[in-house]
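In practice, a research group might receive sequence data for several interacting partners and want a quick structural hypothesis before committing to experiments. The following worked case mirrors that situation: the sequences arrive first, and a predicted assembly follows.
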Amino acid sequence: MRKDELMRVYYQMQLARGFETRVAEQYMKGRIGGFCHLYSGEEAVALGALWSLRKDDYVIGSYRDHGYYILRGGDPGKAMAELFGHANGCCKGKGGSMHLFDPDINFLGGYAIVGGMCPIAVGLGLAIQYRGEDRVVLCAFGDGATNQGAYHEALNMASLYKLPVIWVCENNRYAIGTSVTRSSAQESMARKAKTAYDLPVSVVDGMDFFKMQSVMERAIKRAREGKGPSFIEAKCYRYRGHSMSDPATYRDKKEVEFWKQRDPIPRIKAVIQHDFDVPDEEFKALDTKVRQVLEEAVKFAEAGHELPPERLHEDLYVD
Amino acid sequence: MRKDELMRVYYQMQLARGFETRVAEQYMKGRIGGFCHLYSGEEAVALGALWSLRKDDYVIGSYRDHGYYILRGGDPGKAMAELFGHANGCCKGKGGSMHLFDPDINFLGGYAIVGGMCPIAVGLGLAIQYRGEDRVVLCAFGDGATNQGAYHEALNMASLYKLPVIWVCENNRYAIGTSVTRSSAQESMARKAKTAYDLPVSVVDGMDFFKMQSVMERAIKRAREGKGPSFIEAKCYRYRGHSMSDPATYRDKKEVEFWKQRDPIPRIKAVIQHDFDVPDEEFKALDTKVRQVLEEAVKFAEAGHELPPERLHEDLYVD
Amino acid sequence: MAKTSYRDALNQALREEMQRDESVVLFGEDVAEYEGSFKVTRGLLKEFGPKRVFDTPISEAGIVGMAIGAAMGKIRPVPELMTANFAYVAMDQILNHLALMHYMFGGQATLPVTIRMPGGGGHQLGSQHSHSPEPIFVHTPGLFVVYPATPADAKALLKAAIRDDNPVIFLEHEGLYNLEGEVPDNLEPGVIGEAKALREGSDITLVGYGAMTHVALEAAEALAKEGVKAEVIDLRTLRPWDKEAVAASVSKTHRAVVIEECPPACGIAAEVATNLYELAFDALDAPIERVSGADVPLPYAKNLEQACIPHGTDVVRAAKKAMARQDP
Amino acid sequence: MAKTSYRDALNQALREEMQRDESVVLFGEDVAEYEGSFKVTRGLLKEFGPKRVFDTPISEAGIVGMAIGAAMGKIRPVPELMTANFAYVAMDQILNHLALMHYMFGGQATLPVTIRMPGGGGHQLGSQHSHSPEPIFVHTPGLFVVYPATPADAKALLKAAIRDDNPVIFLEHEGLYNLEGEVPDNLEPGVIGEAKALREGSDITLVGYGAMTHVALEAAEALAKEGVKAEVIDLRTLRPWDKEAVAASVSKTHRAVVIEECPPACGIAAEVATNLYELAFDALDAPIERVSGADVPLPYAKNLEQACIPHGTDVVRAAKKAMARQDP
Ligand SMILES: Cc1ncc(C[n+]2csc(CCOP(=O)(O)OP(=O)(O)O)c2C)c(N)n1
Ligand SMILES: Cc1ncc(C[n+]2csc(CCOP(=O)(O)OP(=O)(O)O)c2C)c(N)n1
Ligand SMILES: [Mg+2]
Ligand SMILES: [Mg+2]
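A structural hypothesis for the assembly, expressed as tokens:
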């Protein structure tokens, strides 16, 4: 990859990471309510998965959606405003943290029912195939979703109809406080899917942007060529609790440390420094830019207001 | 097996087959209503699966339940009466063809929602494990059920908790008019389950009583020893349409013929004649007994009456 | 004008809408090669081919979810659930996704999905196969719920549902598929939310929907013989339902019987009655009578099942009870 | 008598029933090691061990189905659904299996299953996580539905639900877990189906359940300041519900407001109101007022969400409207 691209990788991951830090701050200040699931630590999965997609490809995922929204090119201000519940948010403040949505970047939603978005991804794939397009669908979900019936129905249908859906399972080893070992008879998400749904699978280090990006490229190519779905198990880790209200006492320090050693951001920085000797200033400059963008995002959110209650019934039906 | 046992195998299959013939007659006469799914052709699957079970083991299955009920030792009269909707039926006429039930033989129900009985089988397994018993659960379902979410949740849970559940998938190649090829990305039901749920699987000729009975024995042993569930894919065929109202025009004569060549009843008869030279009279005698038993069953059903409407609200709640 | 069956009227609506709009796609269990377990999709695979009419695995959550995604992908799916009883395994996709996505995403997700499903009892299909789930859908903001009683409405309203950009639960009654009725040629799409008076009367209002509309008509006929002029209103759509039309009728007749096939608690009749009391309290000379499905799962035995389902005689009894009350 | 929280009262009920009956078993998502996402099962794994308190995968249909089978296998399961919103993925197991099996099998399957689930909105959890599904369960014959408003009732009714041999949907309100109240020591199990007057009054009857009971109490307080004596009735159980008690109160006050957290169509208030009209038509001096959740999915924004949920002020307004009508 070219240096400027690599610098963008660094910038983007810092942006996503920084966004979550701001969200945590604002949540503590009581300006953000509800359930709030941070993506910190898993940035390489989303960025690697999104990197080679086209603007017209569809992206859909879970309630842990800030990372995907930001890294897909969503406006951090509109995302932050949504978390504030303000009308200038990406869903007018009606969706909230778990339900970001933006048709302009074809980010078709964060969904809060585990596994619930998987059949919807199949439908997007069906539409693509029906219209003879060469778009693809990226559907991201967690390890816990593989225990939900709808997920299985979806995987079977996507394979049966050879739809251009790429399943990205973020295996961060926990579903809230329950480890994969304690919830799935088959601990490998990839093996759990491969034979059952007869599709190509890969297991990848989700803390490594390059690995993630390259398996994704293969999957995209296959999907665009009409060869059907692929499954990617990204081994990763969430640095924080399941949501802002989870102290995550069920994970021991050592485990957390082990994964923080593999933090994708220092990792990409090291690569860049190794391949091109980039002065620290350049990184600092990007960090500064991230800070500015996020400050503006918070300002944008603060400047907004909740929809007036008179408008409560808007958007219930199309007329 | 001893001769008398083999003769019982012959008798039982004739009984189950003959029962369905009577049911078809009565259905035509309009004495049986609703959906009515016959088991003709698949007798070796149920009998082989049930043969080595103990009286205290649990059996649960689908709406295609006449065979299991009869072969488990259920009273053909009570079953026929149930189909007549009479109060002397095994569910007082409230259940009907799809919902036979008899605690005395631990046949805990035919269920009409595809895959819906699978999580219930898990619960029976849980109770056995919790109470430290060495019983097992036999859960029978069709190929189509493997596309239903609840089925997958159940298989995972049974394996995760190492429950004594034996999954018997009757792969008769069709779900109503849709063949396995057109509905499942993985055509082998055994492979579909094996890796995903990490349990021992076997594929067996479901038209062969002996093969069915022997794989089942292994599964039972394993379950009784607390080693967990097993999965058996029985390749079989239903001679008739999906239900009495299905002409089954989607299957060509050749295919039906191919399977009728493998009819388990002549097959067992041949084995018996080969191993012990049994005069035809002995078989004729059993056939006559079958006829008598079924005539009595119909008489018993005819002698019954529907519950009076005043009793409509009984059994809604336990008091 | 030739008579057409409810089944064929639905089939015509599907065919005409598919001819009219390339983006209309049908899928479901056995809808293509088997032509539907109730044959409503007969001939459509042949005419439109496997891309527009195809079979699915037995995966209702998958079917409904696929319809949602397909709609976001700019096609107009008309999935069939083999029967309404199987909507229960897809309830999360219907109530917790389809119904609320347009609202939750601030109006950005538009879901022109019409889910067809035959409902109702009366065929000895047993407890798990005889549900009338209409109240569950009517309770849910974000859905439209249609339940036609006649071939003409079946056709007109299915066309309207398919063209509508909102999610529509389209209930068909298993007992009406063979019902014959007049269906005008080049019938225009109906209007979702409009009730229709099928019979004029001044003494009492009988409110029905789906198969219950015919029960109401039967009762009106019997009542007429006894000199009671009953007005029969067919709701036709249950969400939204035509409160004004029904209230206007009751303001005229001062008495009403509401008929529902489902059990009474939190049912359709409770919904209709409560609103009528609110809209026409002073006009009412007697409590509104409800004739509901029995408050039990439908049993298999024919006599018991029939005892669960409203009949004309039950409605006549209820109407007489309401008539017996003297105006204050 | 020491104050106890609704959460701890539930915890006590679970502990005491588990101590009393070996066959009571708890399972659900994160109920054991994590001690429940609302900490209702705190300490139970420690006290009773992993055989009686264990975690499940995210498989609600599996959880409910497992409870059904376990009950047939003679254990007494008390599964927790992390929230009522996840009951939708298990709806088929609840409505089409659990509720009807005892009846369908002619009384031969006995299912002493108590499904605990926190419901309700008000915490900015968004549309998919803020449902009040009580009408769906109340509509269903074969289920009991309990929805306590106070710590004492939470404990007494959970004990009753666990000991009952029928399937019970036990709703807990997310907003009440921290509510403190007096809980007598060695409290006896409550009675499913009995309402309770929490405040006597002669002018109007306010009917609530769960969190809505507190909204009713708040309103009664405010009305008292204006000289209106409101009687507040807490339904406590929604199926069966105490029609006699509520009708008796209305016969005394001649006016009523029914409060529900769910949307109005086919809701709890429609059910209550319709029955009251039938039982006390002549006693009513004004139409029964309904105060319902807004007819939209719950939005995330705090002000919008609050605008969806009934408040004391809404009830006061409704009560005044009812009072404004002169007795005929
Ligand atoms: C059907 C359903 N059941 C339960 C929940 C509650 N819940 C929210 S997130 C979660 C854990 C999901 O874990 P995983 O799929 O691994 O995703 P992660 O949070 O680790 O990214 C659970 C149980 C839900 N949202 N939906
Ligand atoms: C959830 C659900 N969807 C659809 C149906 C309608 N249906 C009844 S039987 C059947 C086919 C089942 O095929 P299979 O599981 O292979 O069993 P078989 O009839 O071949 O024994 C279908 C689709 C149902 N009963 N339940
Ligand atoms: Mg996880
Ligand atoms: Mg089959």
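Before designing any experiment, note the following. The mean pLDDT of chain C is 97. The radius of gyration of chain C is 20 Å.
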